[in-house]
Amino acid sequence: MNTDLKNSNGKIRMWFAAIIALILFWNGGSWAADIDNGKRIYAKHCQNCHGAHGQGQLPGVPDFSRGESLMQPDSRLVEVLRNGKGMMPAFRAQLQNRELLDVIAYLRTLRR
Ligand code: HEC
Questions:
Q1: Exposed, middle or buried: residue 65 (CB in 10 Å: 0-12, 13-18, 19+)?
Q2: What is the pTM of this model?
Q3: Which residue among 79, 88, 107 has the greatest number of ligand 1 atoms within 8 angstroms of its CB, and so is best to mutate?
Q4: For ligand 1, is residue 101 a contact (CB within 6 Å)?
Q5: Cβ atoms of 103 and 110 closer than 8 Å
Q6: Can you tell me the distance from the alpha carbon of 94 to that of 56, in angstroms, rounded to the nearest whole number?
Q7: Which end of the chain is less congested by CB atoms within 10 angstroms, N or C?
Q8: What contacts 107, CB < 8 A, 6 or more positions away?
Q9: Which residues is 85 bridged to in the sheet?
Q10: Environment class of residue 102 by beta-carbon count within 10 Å: exposed (0-12), middle (13-18) or buried (19+)?
Q11: Whose CA is closest to 107, among 75, 66, 76?
């Protein structure tokens, strides 16, 4: 009786560890943003207006090197980029949500 209980506990623990390992694996594979890809996208689609270091090339453009406009959740920034804002064009036709999340992760590295 006692040993049975120990055995099943051990099995549960093993399954638990396996499930945690799987979650971590999935997490790394599909949720983590790719900052290098974000950098490429930024150079191609954003740099003209936002500058190589995110300082903004025109009046009214936020300065990412000072963290301006970045105190918002990723989901909110994705919406803004999909739909455009003021002088900024909408990107939903050119960029997937996945790519927008990559470029947002890159924006967050520009803060000094
Ligand atoms: C044609 C110039 C232009 C391009 C290209 C451009 N932006 Fe912008 N961006 C702006 C301007 C202007 C604003 C300020 C909009 C406002 O507040 O009215 C802005 C604002 C933003 C903001 C702040 C949004 C907010 O909620 O206040 C983010 C984030 C941003 N841009 C990211 C990007 C990214 C990422 C790209 C490339 C995928 C990009 N921008 C391309 C001009 C541009």
A1: middle
A2: 0.81
A3: 88
A4: no
A5: no
A6: 21
A7: N
A8: 38, 42, 54, 64, 70, 77
A9: 88
A10: buried
A11: 66
